[in-house]
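forwarding from the other thread:

> can someone predict this with AFP?

sure thing
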Amino acid sequence: MKTLQEYLIASHAPEDLGKIIMLIADQAGPIRSAFISNQNYAGSTNSSGEDQAEMDTWADARITSVLQESGLVRAVASEEQEDIVQMSPSAKYSVVMDPLDGSSLIKVNLSVGTIVGIYEGDVLQAGNQLRAAFYMLYGPMTTLTISLGNGVSIFAMNKDGTYILLKENVRIPEGTLCGSGGLRPEWTEKHIRYMNEIECEGGKNRYSGSFVADFHQILEYGGVYAYPATKKSASGKLRLVFEINPIGFLAAQAGGAVSNGESSTLDIVPTKVHQRTPVYVGSKGMIAKIEAIR
Ligand code: AFP
């Protein structure tokens, strides 16, 4: 049984990159243990004006301090922090993260996760420049889904905290699951047409409110996760840097695609750290379908 550590060596991951991945992966145990005593909202808001859960700030502080102490990271951009945190100027890699994605679901014990992307150099780069992307999903198992730009592999954490390979060369099939955020009365004509087409062709609705968990089922079964432009917010809700780029990179590496409805979000060079964009991510055919609607 291959471990995550062995996979990183076999994939010729540069030493510092491998160390950063392992450091973050090792926080899954402490994060899981912290859920029980951090069930509530923290009474603060993040820079997008959203209420922060206690776990948002806990996971953010934990991962940030581990990375700071390591001396291996140049800068960190976190969904939970207003500004980019500058760390070790001579370090090669920078980290983008959503420390706890789907945090409104903690109280109801549905799956949530940690999303991470790693760049060489600074954080404000297009998603197609990622050196690594992965997410830890805290479900019945703790799994870690990763790509170093050479396909996608999924690991599961055993009771000693070691990640064991569950699946390699993961490919997104052309499935029929579909889940869309945004209130229906606020959807655009284009998005209504798209969702109608999919549902008429047998699309099955699945949407939990946790991007990372919703994407994970798309990765396995195929289909599309969407958070579209709405009449109130032309740029949708999800953040390009922390959420969409790492997940989009994984989707593309699994033979799927990610788009803002017109073209790939992986080609967008962010100008702001908390930049939002509409997103459609999943099976290639599902993404081609939204891009074909004018
Ligand atoms: P956070 O829990 O990190 O704030 O992310 C929540 C999220 O960005 C994404 O995980 C969900 O898919 C989406 O928001 C849910 O939004 P709605 O509550 O509007 O459906």
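The chain has eight helices and 15 strands. thats all i got for now
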